[in-house]
Amino acid sequence: MPAGEIKLSPAQVEYMLALGIGKRLIAKYAQSFGDGSNFLAVGVLNYSFRMETGGEDAKQYLLRNEPLIESEANGVCLDPELEDAFSLLYSFMLIRIGPTDPVRSQALALRASELCIPLRTPEEICHSSDAFEFLSYVQRYAGELLQR
């Protein structure tokens, strides 16, 4: 995709970035946790971004492994690649949510702070305050993350 070309909506870009992070987490946990790496990766994402767990199996995993999930989420900041991806997703989500949902925005910002994940501005991320350039950057990043 050429630089500056946007093919997806912001919601799709956010989802793509979350998928890329999930893929990285699964790869990180696969050797140690085997088949449980999928549930652990989803648990870390859900805990980190304050998302509800969907399926019954995932909910049961979350209940049985809450300390492990919290511990792994707290360790994300120690992995530079994951910290960067998490920082980008938090920043992108907060910009998208903006003032439309101040309660969710505050909860996300607080969780990022608890996990020692830096929140960055578009200027810090892609050296531009232009929304189109920022969305394009996040889309490219998410695509590259999925390819790794």
Characterise this structure.
- With 148 residues, the chain is an all-alpha fold.
- It has one domain.
- It is 73% helix and 0% strand.
- The protein is built from eight helices and no strands.
- α1 packs across α2.
- The mean pLDDT is 91.
Number of helices, counting only DSSP H or I runs of 4 residues or more? 8
Could you list the spans in which at least 5 consecutive residues all have pLDDT below 50? Answer: none
Structural class designation: mainly alpha
Say how many strands there are: 0
Major sheet details: none
Distance between the termini: 16 Å
Global morphology: globular
Total individual domains: 1
Summarize model confidence as the mean pLDDT.
91
Strand content: under 5%
Question: Notable features of this structure?
Answer:
148 residues; mainly alpha; 8 helices; 73% helix
Helix and strand layout, with pairings?
Blueprint: H1 10-33, H2 37-48, H3 56-64, H4 66-75, H5 80-97, H6 102-114, H7 122-126, H8 131-147
Short description:
It contains eight helices and no strands. It is an all-alpha fold.
